């Protein structure tokens, strides 16, 4: 029996990547006079690696062999990422990002049905709280019994660790939960923890491999804006 919904954050609850995370990275690089500039297209390639610090490292390894690395590279990346997180949070406070279609409705219906709610994300906890409070409800962080986020696990998505963490905190078996994800890395993480998964695609992820998904839709749908099923089937 279904007991809980476990939501991904970036790309699932809201389109945070292109115009918020990406811009916050670029503004931080500019602040440090680094000639690193992540275009919309390049960012799509960089999303192959989850986690901001891991993504910066990947960018340097893959695209900037020319960059003269400082001896304390990991500490420098951590510092950049802290600044990026501060910028991202300020951005969200100044201009909240709208939730994707159906997110608010689904959460309200789940609460009404007595389903438990959790989050399993790669992004930092503060980013999740700011997004929930600004875009959903000032009290929304409390709607989620468990928020498993960021560096609490060593291996980020597509590793299953963050979903294992969420299951453990909920005290539930994987089959008592449903994960809602938007990306290939996300579904591999959730399925790696044996949690049935629904995918709601976005522009960055629609061509990814969602093998094993219960259902793939273009968004979660509103009465006046129905979703389209891209694969799988809805039986009610
Ligand atoms: C998405 C991510 C994150 C964000 C940036 O996480 O991979 O790295 O792009 O956030 P999810 P940070 O889809 O699991 O929510 O810079 O805080 O990592
Ligand atoms: Mg995501």
UniProtKB/TrEMBL annotation:
**InterPro entries documented for this protein:** CbbY-like (IPR044999), HAD-like_sf (IPR036412), HAD-SF_hydro_IA (IPR006439), HAD_sf (IPR023214), PGP-like_dom2 (IPR023198)
Q: Which UniProt keywords apply?
A: Hydrolase
User: What SUPFAM superfamilies does this protein's entry cite?
Assistant: HAD-like (SSF56784)
Coiled coil (residue ranges): none
* Pfam families the record matches: Hydrolase
**Keyword Hydrolase belongs to the record:** yes
Q: What GO MF annotations does this protein's record show?
A: hydrolase activity
Full protein name: HAD-superfamily hydrolase
């Amino acid at each position: 029996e279904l007991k809980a919904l476990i939501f991904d954050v970036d790309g699932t609850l809201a389109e945070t990547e292109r115009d918020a995370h990406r811009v916050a990275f670029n503004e931080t690089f500019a602040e440090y006079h680094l000639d690193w500039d992540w275009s919309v297209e390049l960012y799509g390639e960089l999303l192959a690696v989850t986690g901001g610090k891991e993504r910066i490292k990947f960018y340097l390894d893959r695209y900037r062999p020319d960059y003269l690395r400082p001896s304390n590279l990991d500490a420098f990346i951590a510092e950049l990422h802290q600044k990026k997180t501060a910028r991202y949070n300020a951005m969200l406070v100044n201009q909240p990002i709208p939730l994707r279609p159906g997110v608010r409705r689904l959460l309200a219906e789940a609460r009404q049905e007595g389903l438990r709610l959790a989050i399993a994300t790669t992004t930092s906890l503060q980013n999740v709280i700011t997004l929930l409070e600004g875009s959903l409800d000032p009290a929304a962080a409390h709607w989620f019994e468990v928020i498993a986020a960021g560096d609490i696990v060593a291996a980020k998505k597509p590793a299953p660790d963050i979903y294992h963490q969420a299951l453990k905190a909920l005290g539930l078996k994987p089959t008592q939960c449903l994960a809602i994800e938007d990306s290939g890395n996300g579904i591999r993480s959730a399925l790696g923890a044996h949690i049935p998964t629904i995918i709601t695609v976005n522009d960055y992820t629609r061509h990814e491999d969602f093998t094993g998904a219960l259902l793939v839709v273009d968004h979660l749908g509103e009465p006046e804006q129905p979703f389209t099923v891209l694969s799988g089937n809805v039986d009610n």
